[in-house]
Design goal:
heterotrimer, A alpha+beta (about 160), B alpha/beta (about 550), C alpha/beta (about 625), B: about 550 residues, alpha/beta, Ubiquitin-like (UB roll), Rossmann fold, 3 domains, 5-stranded mixed beta sheet, 4-stranded parallel beta sheet, 19 helices, C: about 625 residues, Glutaredoxin, 4-stranded mixed beta sheet, about 15% strand, binds flavin mononucleotide, binds iron/sulfur cluster, binds FE2/S2 (inorganic) cluster
Amino acid sequence: MQASEMMARVDAIVEEHGNQQSSIISILQGIQKEYRYLPEEALNYLAEKMDISASKIYGIATFYENFSLEPKGKHIIKICDGTACHIRKSQPILDALRKELNLPEGRITTDDLLITVEMVSCLGACSLAPVVNVDGVVYAKMTPNKTQELVRKIKEGTFGEDD
Amino acid sequence: MGTMTIDNKKVEFTDEKNVLEVIRKMGIDLPTFCYYSELSIYGACRMCIVEDDRGKIFASCSQLPKDGMKIYTQTPKVRKYRKNILELLLSNHDRDCTSCNITGRCDLQRLARRFGIENIRFGELDEKLPIDDSSHGLVRNPNKCIYCGDCVRVCEEVQGVGALSFTHRGSDLKISPAFNKTISEVNCVDCGQCRIVCPTGAITVKDDREAFWEAIWDPNKRVVAQIAPAVRVALGERFGMKAGEVTMGKIVAALRMLGVDEVYDTAFAADMTVIEESQEFIERLSSGENLPLFTSCCPGWVKFAEYKYPELKDNISSCKSPQQMFGAVVKEYYKEKDSEGGKETIMVSIMPCTAKKAEAAREEMEVDGVRDVDIVITTNELARMIKELGIVFEELEDEALDMPFGLASGTGIIFVATGGVTEAVVTRLLKDKPRNDEKPVLFKDVRGLDNIKEASFQVDDREVRIAIVHGLKNADNLIKMIKSGQKHYDFIEVMACPGGCVSGGGQPSPTNVEHRRERAKGLYKIDKTSFIKSSERNPVVSNLFEDMLKDKKHLIHVHKN
Amino acid sequence: MRMTSSKDLYEAYEKFKVDFEREGKKIIVCAGTGCVAGGALDIYEEFQRLLEKDGLKDQVELIKETEEISLKKSGCPGLCEAGPLVRVEPGDILYTKVKVEDCKDIIQETFVEDRAVDRLFLRIDDEVYPYQHSIPFYINQSRLVLEDCGEVDPESIQDYIARGGYLALAKALEEMTPQEVCDEIVKAKLRGRGGGGFPAGVKWSQVLSYESDMKYIICNGDEGDPGAFMDMCIMEGLPHSIIEGMIIAAYATKAKEGYIYVRAEYPMAVKRLARAIQQARQYGLLGPNILGTDLSFDIHINQGAGAFVCGEGSALIASIEGERGMPRVKAKRTVEEGLWKKPTVLNNVETFANVRNIILKGANWFKSYGTEDSPGTKAFSVTGNVNNTGIIEVAMGTTLREIIYDTCGGIMDGKKFKAVQIGGPSGGCLTEEHLDMPLDFDSLTEVGAMIGSGGMVVMDQDTCIVEVARFFMNFTQNESCGKCVPCREGTKRMLEIMEKIVAGKATMEDLEVLEELAYTVTETSLCGLGKTAANPVLSTLKYFRDEYIQHIVDKKCHAKVCEALKTIRIIPDLCKGCSKCARICPADAIIGKVREVYRIDEEKCIKCGACIESCAFAAIEEV
Ligand SMILES: Cc1cc2nc3c(=O)[nH]c(=O)nc-3n(C[C@H](O)[C@H](O)[C@H](O)COP(=O)(O)O)c2cc1C
Ligand code: SF4
Ligand code: SF4
Ligand code: SF4
Ligand code: SF4
Ligand code: SF4
Ligand code: SF4
Ligand code: SF4
Ligand code: SF4
Ligand code: FES
Ligand code: FES
Ligand code: FES
């Protein structure tokens, strides 16, 4: 990433939300949207620009679950483990996915940065539990098989063509 | 205003900020980990819990006193919960007290003993994290941290640095610099204020005692010690004496018993700094360049400015700090002798300050490859060495400093209290030198513990505007005001620590307002009774300037690139 | 069109109402998160395509002459389980589980041939329900807040105004002083729907009583309870009702700025709220001089970033201020020193959504629903093992039995009811003995549960209650901010013990420690999260202690949920000795000789269950 380009992008995001501490979460969301994660250089630049210590920004970024300091995959699969989904067996879906993607414990993103798998709590579609959200689209009443199917489509590059 | 009932006793309260203060006022030492009256209230450790008359448990540090309130500081429930909380803390703690840097002075250990924790049922520390010993001044051991947040708050609220922050959350909570870097990689200025407030061994002073012992035992080394002014009014606290009690004679005696060859007073070098820095100031006043002049004797401040306001580089005095000047001069003084006798002079400074350790290690603090200062030992480390040898400090007979560098003016001594530098420089600028008994009136705006002090003096025909600031957050605010054009000054004294070096990061803790006041009082007392009033009347210093330093001024200046 | 007086609003109301009611033939596609997940947007597009491009509309109009078919999206009417839902008016015909392929039939048969598509009707136990309002799910509800959810297009302010929207605001502005508005809310005894049940009117009056250059209104739409989504339903389905409530609160307390804090997992709610705010500004209902009065007020949306604890008031405020969302201790309450230390009203989504009806219809009308001390209604999201999961709204004081059996159609697969977890991770469980207890704030608190957010998870006999308690413990432990010791360290140790219990490794001493910790955490934690974190454990211990003991002493999970406590065994009488299972077992745990009875080595068995399915003689069972 070109430093000057990064600075220009961060400038634009700060411009959009306002250079004050109360905007910091929106700004971080903006940066994450841009890069799919929060790059260290961008946060250091932000700290200087906003006169907030870098450690404080780091503290905020590590507090909220949605922020990632590591690059995330191109596709994000969120498996709901809210109460309703848990009771209707969401764990096996996660297990199946990890197996399908060869993700060991503690890793959420595939090496090729294609897919990130996250466990989240409640996506608000509890009646259709268990649910899975792929790139913002909710899939209802999922099973391990159906989820594996989705992943295969993503891998083959045919995902989203017929949905 | 009102009355409350604490443990069935009626207690009046006035302006106490919280129930905890009222409880303490009535003489009960309620335990706390996360409460410091000078920091914002955090309310996380839950040690200060009390029970009210309806059986509700609350943290007394975060509750306003209310008229008619009835509380109990010790009930079966409170006692059990407090013990459980301590047990929970200890369960996730690296409990190797015997080999812990601060055992015996640790709040966690003390409270565990006070509440009789004998059995920890809840588990063990699950994962040992690496220790950060990257900095010259401090060591961070996250395995000892209880996440009280005191360090985070002091660093942000008092120092305006924000080198540390809470990161992650829940049981993954950590205290760390940005991006989990080491403190030496970030904007930490080594002031050690975080260490002062840390109730455990999670932040401790970098221990340099071993190097000191080695130097002492090496027959080829001439070990020369300098003792900073603030040390003599605080060291006694480690031996049960009162804050502010002057123990210079005992320290000299103790150092000789340790095996130090020559013992001097850093105040001597402070006299040199006063002369050199006021000279620089006079020159700048007449040329009008690079004003305001900022003092350079506090390495915490210098580092802060380097990080945050690099553009102020030329406004900071180029004089070395007294510690470094002293080192440079002593090394020069023994240069020939050493090369003849095959000895090496080792400069050890006894400092109240953790930043001085880092300062001594700075690349530019040397002359022709010879380090100015070799070893920096803090007040606390010296106390431990004295204890290690089994010296009964309180009973030592006073001994006198060595000559020639043992002679210092009162001005040099108060150098370390906030306002001290200013007083010294102004004393020198004034044509009519104030008598010792005139000083308190003349310098009333300069003394004391206000965050930012301002004064102006008529020097010749010119009004010289001076600001004195301590605590880096205050310095930061002041600089912002200067930058925005709200304020104008000619001379600005900055001390990183609140109250100046008397509360340096290497001093015994606690270091609260009362300690600061008492220690500063001790220094003013020495000033009052010292028979050399001002720096330029120090004959040894004058000689030095006329003789050795005559064409070697570079020894005592920093050469910035 | 900017409205500059109440008169403008009344005129708009009359006009939109006529439009709304004239709409005649309507196809209403539910566009709530649930139905969208089932493909509702594609269905909507298909209808659009069929009507516009395929000319089906013309075809209908040829036959029915002037009658137009209008197509609209609505918020969630609550019956998500049966979604995607399509309702057809007139006639109140409800089609369930609609697919794109059904759209053509729906238009053709309903509008052209004048008969309904029976295969899409809701069926419960052989009973067929063609009409929405005949469905038992709706019969026992009192939909006051959600009345229009499913009726109006959430993206249309005209729809909302047509249904009387913003008339309450106009009434407050025209006929009432701020104090009178506060008084009316006090009189209605509207209690906060976000958990605590604190009287909203009292809060408002206090904020009104403080002099300050700035005051704030915050709407808490964080809805972190995993398994509750009624606030989402309101935000998505009736965003204007929240905005109207907030504007009225601003008028009543003299606040100038408002914030809606929405959790990040609700992108559609954010979108709809943002759109509604935009429309309200255009109509002069937000911004300077609302409806031509002195009232100036505007609303910002803050999106959460994934932290349950940010639903707690002081953490939410910290988060809006741009800090880590850690709860704060404060000497003064939020009503005096809230956001940026200014007086602040903080209320829940549903609390605000209740305001318009109270102002418009009066406190007495409101009190005619619910109980003496908990008047009005409450929305619940009912999930778990019931037949009709979804969002319901019932009068306070309705019993669990009515909710579970009448409204939600009873337990799935005819199983036996075991317990219901109410109030999410901070709540407690209710059992059979509570089935006839009226649900309101106070009676729930009495039995150690709470309405909390309104999440209700129904569990049948096959649920392991210990494992459910472990699940909640895991949730709160994960979501603890870590600030205070009892919650950070205590929940962690409690979870460790719960994990030991479900793994069959705990002792009775562990149970003792668990309880001791539970009380310590409850009584000494800083914020509500810690104070309630132990509730699921404490309440399940209260009603199902024997199940804990079974896990600990007998190492048995009678619900057969806890993996570690399962035993797989071969029933000797049934085993024919075919050896199939032994060949399939991945752990080589099955031993025996062909044509003799096989046996499972418990030490080796990993409880994968593969053998059970493999046995053609059903000789292997799980005990
Ligand atoms: C851990 C925790 C999470 C909470 N989450 C929510 C929430 O998601 N939504 C909500 O409205 N209130 C939540 N609350 C309650 C709020 O603190 C607050 O009481 C409420 O928003 C006030 O509004 P009300 O009086 O209208 O209910 C939560 C409280 C705690 C302790
Ligand atoms: S920090 Fe205190 S309690 Fe912990 S090991 Fe060191 S002395 Fe012991
Ligand atoms: S007293 Fe106990 S803790 Fe202390 S050193 Fe001896 S054995 Fe260790
Ligand atoms: S030494 Fe000073 S600057 Fe460094 S972390 Fe500690 S308080 Fe902050
Ligand atoms: S390092 Fe010390 S002061 Fe900082 S949080 Fe840990 S225990 Fe507290
Ligand atoms: S004020 Fe004194 S003790 Fe503190 S950092 Fe500066 S020199 Fe060191
Ligand atoms: S109770 Fe838990 S969530 Fe609340 S402040 Fe304490 S640690 Fe944070
Ligand atoms: S598969 Fe069934 S019948 Fe065959 S050996 Fe196994 S248990 Fe016996
Ligand atoms: S459950 Fe799995 S591991 Fe156990 S005996 Fe059957 S096949 Fe083997
Ligand atoms: S619990 Fe999974 S969507 Fe709500
Ligand atoms: S001192 Fe009160 S909570 Fe820490
Ligand atoms: S989302 Fe369509 S019925 Fe709930």
